Amino acid sequence: MKTSERLSDSYTDLARQYVDKVFEIVQSRNPGEVEFQQAVKEVFDSLVPVLAKKPHYIKQAILERIVEPERMISFRVPWIDDQGNVNVNRGFRVQFNSAIGPYKGGLRFHPSVNASIIKFLGFEQIFKNSLTGQPIGGGKGGSDFDPKGKSDVEIMRFTQSFMTELSKYIGPDIDVPAGDIGVGAKEIGYMFGQYKRMRGGFESGVLTGKGINYGGSLARKEATGYGTVYFVEEMLKDKDLSFEGSTVVVSGSGNVSIYAIEKAQQLGAKVVACSDSGGYIYDENGIDLSTVKRLKEVEGKRISEYVKEHPQALYVQGFSGIWSIPCDIALPCATQNEINENAAQVLVSNGVKAIGEGANMPSTLDAIDVFLSNGVLFAPAKAANAGGVSVSALEMAQNSARLSWTFEEVDSKLHEIMKNIYRESMNAAEEYGAPGNLVVGANIAGFVKVADAMIMQGVI
Ligand code: NAP
After folding, report:
1. Which atom of ligand 1 has the smallest separation from the CA of 361?
2. Per annotation, catalytic residue among 140, 196, 221, 382
3. CATH number of the CATH domain containing 364
4. For a surface tag, which of 249, 258, 308, 365 has the fewest beta carbons within 10 Å of its beta carbon?
5. Does residue 78 sit in the same domain as residue 56?
6. Per-residue pLDDT reduced to its tens digit, 142-192
7. How far apart, in whole angstroms, are the C-alpha atoms of residue 9 and residue 17?
8. Residues contacting 308, CB < 8 A, separation 6+
9. To test ligand 1's pocket by mutation, which of 127, 180, 299 has the most ligand atoms within 8 angstroms of CB?
């Protein structure tokens, strides 16, 4: 063995020891926060080759600093329901990292929301936002409020109460929230109204995902779903594959799913299944998206209603069975950890060729191992679903310039951004000895820019 190889091995050992040591600190400082620990582990495991090559990151304690949010806010959200009862929910905002720009990330309203979920999402957001090439830091927030079954007036009262507290911590150059699960255009509108009222000024850049008539961007609604498909298209192209003629399964039937289905269909794919938290539909002729859009976007109904209008389709209760449907491309677009090791094995044995993560962390670490070890093309969330936040940053740019671009302009910028993220992730994977591994590539490409900015700004 040459001296240079021996040296490189010893740097790798050092880097591995450092990563393990910091991960132990993360476990002991964040007990029981399994989702947050899972997100950290995935990133840390990718970073060993970078730390071996750039040991000054170790000296600068970059990992110890990057896993600690700059600020974590937790607050009471009291509100009165239609029966006159007082309810109390918990609100969160994690302002994780502002090395390359103001904190940016969505708000999630779902009963499962807790500190661990918000921190995992905020941590991922740091690297995702860096990958977009735009000047945005990482943040995330939300509440354990369940918007399902609530009247419009209850949602308004809740969001006003939520924003009354959150408004103290955000601003167009400080922290810019957007939507996520359970937070769509309606909730953003109510929150924007309350923020404007509290500030006494029209700060359009404080939230993204706004209505088009008061500062929103065309193509923001479509951006995450379209972006995921654009990313997967690049990945397929490299292997001489395409959406054209492929069978696709998409989980969920919310914002990301609907526009992933739309773009996949435009590219000639047959999308045969989608779901909600109650169950999934299977339509072997291909899903009629106009029915799904009406049921979900307009009428707020369950996906089970689809089969009443399309009797040839099947509805199956239970959410996870969707992964037993044979397909060429699977796009998990609902929620975290929806594909476990077993589901991944079933997908592989049914011949799946590619996975594109539209949701955040939809595959467990074991599931990812199954895909990678079986040669399935795998587009990780951090890179593949970065289209939403990219167009949010374009919305901020339009707000600052007091301009609005056409749908085509925004969509073509989104397409270019997704192609760039794909290229940068592939290049980083190649440079650090894991050719073709987009999990490693996306983590490294996102990390290096943030770590360098942190070092340039001193120990803060
Ligand atoms: P959404 O519009 O609220 O839709 C979520 C969909 O997933 C719904 O069909 C929902 O079913 C289902 N779902 C939610 N929680 C579930 C659970 N615990 N088990 C099973 N199904 C569940 O949300 P979205 O904006 O599309 O977000 C979906 C995913 O994409 C999330 O992981 C989010 O973090 C990620 N993401 C979103 C954006 C964005 O721009 N919106 C950007 C990047 C990443 P029900 O209606 O029955 O609850």
Report:
1. 32
2. 140
3. 3.40.50.720
4. 308
5. no
6. 999 999 999 999 999 999 999 999 999 999 999 999 999 999 999 999 999
7. 12
8. none
9. 180
Tokens (6 digits) for 192: 């924007």
Name the DSSP letter for residue 214.
G
Burial 444-455 (b: 16+ CB within 10 A, else e): bbbbbbbbebbb
Final residue belonging to a domain, choices 168, 201, 234: 201
pTM above 0.90, yes or no: yes
In the sheet that holds 137-143, the strands lie side by side as 71-80, 86-97, 137-143, 103-109, 175-178
Mutate to test the pocket of ligand 1, among 104, 145, 256 (most ligand atoms within 8 A of CB): 256
Distance in angstroms (rounded) separating the CA atoms of residues 185 and 187: 6
Dump pLDDT digits (tens) for 104-133: 999 999 999 999 999 999 999 999 999 999
Are 169 and 264 part of one and the same domain?
Answer: no
Q: Is 270 a catalytic residue?
A: no
For residue 450, report the distance from its CA to the centre of ligand 1, in Å. 27
How would DSSP label each residue in 388-406? HHHHHHHHHHHHHHT----
Q: Is ligand 1 within 6 A of the CB of residue 189?
A: no
Q: Which domain holds residue 240?
A: 221-384
